[in-house]
């Protein structure tokens, strides 16, 4: 039998390189709103990294450990996976502010 590739097997740099530049820029803008673009943000509020993941949502898209200690590209990759699953509602205030629907 064949084994399905899980998202944890995907190299974040390769994944982000395959995304449209506009989509990558959208996640950079989202991080600018969520964390002032600080990809290692861990302020103790229960949200982590540039995109302010909860640990639950991070793990739901294949992440492990603390999102704040991972690369910008990994956070963008997992943010893209989360957005594909939940829509921009995962970031309600900033998505609204940036006009993402």
Low-confidence segments = none
* Biggest beta sheet summary: none
CATH class bucket? Mainly Alpha
Number of strands: 0
Share of helix, binned:
40-55%
Radius of gyration: 13 Å
Q: Give the N-to-C terminal Cα separation.
A: 40 Å
Determine the structural class based on helices, strands and strand pairing.
Answer: mainly alpha
Mean pLDDT: 94
| CATH structural fold name | Lysozyme
The overall number of domains is: 1
SSE succession:
HHHHH
The CATH level-2 architecture is identified as Orthogonal Bundle
Based on Cα principal axes, name the global outline: globular
Fold and architecture overview:
It is built from five helices and no strands. It is mainly alpha-helical. The chain has a single domain, classed as Lysozyme. The radius of gyration is 13 Å and the shape is globular. It starts with 11 loop residues before the first helix and ends with a helix. The mean pLDDT is 94.
Structure keywords:
Lysozyme, 101 residues
Report a brief summary of the structure.
Helix 1 (12-18) packs across helix 4 (72-86) and helix 2 crosses helix 5 (92-98). The chain has helices spanning 12-18, 21-35, 55-60, 72-86, 92-98. It starts with 11 loop residues before the first helix and ends with a helix.
